[in-house]
Write a structure and sequence with these properties.
By secondary structure, the protein is of the alpha+beta class. The protein is 33% helix and 26% strand. It has a domain at 13-93 and 101-133: Aminopeptidase, CATH 3.40.630. The protein has an eight-stranded mixed beta sheet. The chain is globular.
């Protein structure tokens, strides 16, 4: 094994540095912190998660419901070394988009270290090879240049600006290159 820390059996995906597993109700404390990060609220949106109960509700209605409905969702991303939770990354099926999209968010202290690129690339491969998804896209806020750079690094390209709802904010749609 050469000193490589193994991920737990419950993990959906593993990369060189990361373990990804389904989110659970007991991740509410982490989710509360992540969803209230100022960058998360600015670029992804304010999910109105202010308490642990709100976070458990977000998990139940979002990722956990998605696993049951679609067989995939957003996953908790943790470091292999020490199993420290650092963010979430996974696949989302939105009613307003024809395709499944890859999404991610990381705590501020774990940004700019390549974790988003590493986890998103693994999720794309997982979606294509293990789930048989022919086309996976991504959306990001136009001002989120760091996210756009990640999307380009994982092989997506900007196609056009879209909105997910009438009167909603403009988002950039990235598609397979």
């Amino acid at each position: 094994m050469g000193g490589q820390v193994r991920c737990a059996a419950e993990n959906v995906l593993e990369t060189a540095r990361l373990c990804l597993r389904e989110l659970r109700a007991d991740d509410a404390g982490f989710i509360l912190r992540l969803l209230n990060d100022e960058s998360f609220k600015q670029f992804i949106g304010d999910k109105s998660v202010r308490t642990l109960d709100d976070a458990r509700g977000y998990l139940d209605r979002g990722p956990i419901a998605s696993y049951a409905r679609h067989g995939f969702g957003l996953y908790l991303v943790s470091l292999r070394e020490g199993a420290v939770p650092i963010g979430m990354c996974g696949l989302v099926k939105r009613e307003a988009l024809a395709d499944v999209d890859v999404g991610y968010a990381f705590l501020p202290e774990f940004r700019s270290r390549g974790y988003a690129t590493e986890s998103a690339a693994a999720v794309l491969t997982f979606g294509r090879e293990r789930l048989g998804l022919a086309r996976i896209v991504a959306i990001t806020a136009p001002e989120n240049r760091a996210s756009a750079a990640v999307l380009r690094r994982i092989g997506l390209r900007f196609e056009r600006t879209i909105t997910l709802e009438e009167g909603g904010r403009a988002l950039e749609l990235y598609v397979p290159a």
